[in-house]
Amino acid sequence: MQLPPARADDRRGGPYPWGVNATPSSDRFLRALRRERVDRTPVWFMRQAGRYLPEYREVRGDKDILATCREPEIAVEITLQPLRRMDLDAAVLFSDIMVPLAAIGIEIAIGSGVGPVVADPIRSAADVSRLRPIEPEADVPHVLEAIRLLRRELQVPLIGFAGGPFTLASYLVEGAPSRNHDRTKALMHDDPGTWDRLVGALGDIVLGHLQAQVEAGAQAVQVFDSWAGALDPEDYERFVLPATARIFEGLAPLGVPAIHFGVGTGELLGLMRRAGGDALGIDWRTPLDAAWERIGHDRAIQGNLDPAICLASWEALRRKALGVLERAGGWPGHVFNLGHGVLPGTPVANLQRLVDLVHETTETESR
Amino acid sequence: MQLPPARADDRRGGPYPWGVNATPSSDRFLRALRRERVDRTPVWFMRQAGRYLPEYREVRGDKDILATCREPEIAVEITLQPLRRMDLDAAVLFSDIMVPLAAIGIEIAIGSGVGPVVADPIRSAADVSRLRPIEPEADVPHVLEAIRLLRRELQVPLIGFAGGPFTLASYLVEGAPSRNHDRTKALMHDDPGTWDRLVGALGDIVLGHLQAQVEAGAQAVQVFDSWAGALDPEDYERFVLPATARIFEGLAPLGVPAIHFGVGTGELLGLMRRAGGDALGIDWRTPLDAAWERIGHDRAIQGNLDPAICLASWEALRRKALGVLERAGGWPGHVFNLGHGVLPGTPVANLQRLVDLVHETTETESR
């Protein structure tokens, strides 16, 4: 694929501005995840390679996201797009949490604005048997190829990722995005044996997929158990924590830092810490200082600006972002991020200024 | 309107089984809200008069909900339906939080499965001027008439209700149900003067509407600020708490207990307590004992079974319901409810058994 020329609104010009004169940001992100001192607080954004970027919409068109993910050159291009715009401290592979499930033969369609729809939802022991183990080199060669290509280009660390057990299970069981997750919750309570097999199988797939991403070159990983916050702590502990813990235990020997993320998890943070992750990613509902207290300062933390605020004025955004930094309190181990993915209507300029604000503010403070 | 004959699956027979031989449940609910001793823990369900009932679907058909609310006899019938099925300790008026806004001239359509859609969203100071004060006898006579009719029939207390400032504002600003509330949050941050006028005007409408409901006969009220949990504590305190506090202050002289409800409010409970309410209604994410600690035992609490569990087997539902009762710990002031509204697919039998379980379990315990 031909890379597009630099856009007039690129702030640095050239397709890979960090390639030649790399800033010292190259290991800021990984150091923060290890809770080491950093020159500035690192920043990246969930969905930083996304629909809010005109060049993303141009490349994506109305093409199916899973088909897009299967073309490594396009995935590379999309992954790099936000890095040409902003001084981000990490890249995150353009992919989707449903990619490994589609790759092992689950029929999934992801409509724009609809989310993942599963043709034959998984609701019985027999259905669970359809989840075969993943063989990454055979099943997701395009993911691994994209990672290898990216590592040649990138001067900042590359984050690989996968979905968490509850979130993946919910899509498979409900057959579509669900507000209430009622079929999923019914399955876990009414047929815990099948549920355990389901999240066990998903855990193996996630672990295999993440291991392969790391072997291909991913320098950090994030587990998105985005919807785990729909559970009460008792159900999370019984039905999700064990499968999640096995993923993080399996990741530990690889020696790359792992981030554990979910939305609305204020009541679950202690349990999510137990499940694992060098860093916990939290949303904006829980003030960062309170969240860190619950998690413990022997773990790193990622977050937690409300993504909706990025659609407000710069003044409002600035105030809220400074509030996040203040609550981080200068402890080592903070990775600045939003509390959830960048929203499609977000002005690019707001994110650009936000990255610089975080860097400038924390640089001043650390001296 | 002709009331339909008793259904074959009525468990007690007759359209108003509690009318003649009223159980001592008649003031259980109000006593619990005042944290007085009760013979059994009272139970009602948000959306107990709803789509999960076949007789509800029969009466509603595909008629617009706002049009349905304007017919007092039908509202009365729908309100009574669940009471014929279950030994509920309170009735809740069949209505909608958008009713008073439609009544003062805001053009609103509520599509089935879509939620409220506002033809001309409110996003500027000029838009806010369209929110004129409510004159209940002229604007919502059907609501008051339904309440008067219901009080003649009911042997259990009748709950009136209204939406909370953030939830109503979000529908008006976004123009439709919103996952991210980004326009609403942008308005509050970028034009706080207009925001304050908006929630101030909404607060006056809510208060006027609730006062009129109480004068017509409602014996308790609930403020549904369902989506307030989308805010961080700082924004809730600055942008929602003051308007909410004025509502509860205005209600206090009426001498009826008021319930303050929201979803995903674990981090906001202390602030919601400050805003007001004799009882706080909470969802299932926060364990009831932890929530009550945060609220303080000098307030009553309502909740908090996960409504999704009502679609699971009775065994699972029973176990989770007993867990809620155990966490209530025998303190006076617990009203059993779900953590959000009854879901449309809920089996009626599950709710019937649930009501009896709560009564039987707590009766045994209190002796």
Name the average pLDDT of chain A. 92
Largest interface: A-B, 36 and 36 residues
Largest sheet of chain A: 7 strands, parallel
Strand content of chain A: 5-15%
Helix content of chain A: 40-55%
- What is the terminal-to-terminal distance of chain A? 45 Å
Q: Outline of this structure?
A:
The structure is a homodimer of 367-residue chains. Chain A has helices at residues 17-20, 28-33, 54-60, 65-69, 72-85, 99-103, 125-128, 136-139, 141-153, 165-174, 182-190, 192-216, 233-239, 241-251, 269-275, 288-295, 314-328, 348-366, and strands at 91-92, 108-111, 115-118, 158-163, 220-224, 258-261, 279-281, 300-305, 334-338.
Describe the structure.
Two copies of one chain form a homodimer. By secondary structure, chain A is α/β, with parallel strands linked by helices. Chain A has one domain: TIM Barrel. Chain A has 18 helices and nine strands. A seven-stranded parallel β-sheet of chain A has the order 1-4-5-6-7-8-9. In chain A, strands 2-3 form a two-stranded antiparallel ribbon. In chain A, a hairpin with a 3-residue loop joins strand 2 and strand 3. Chain A is globular, with a radius of gyration of 19 Å. In chain A, 54% of the residues are buried. The N terminus of chain A is likely disordered. Chains A and B meet through helix 11 and helix 17 of A and helix 11 and helix 17 of B.
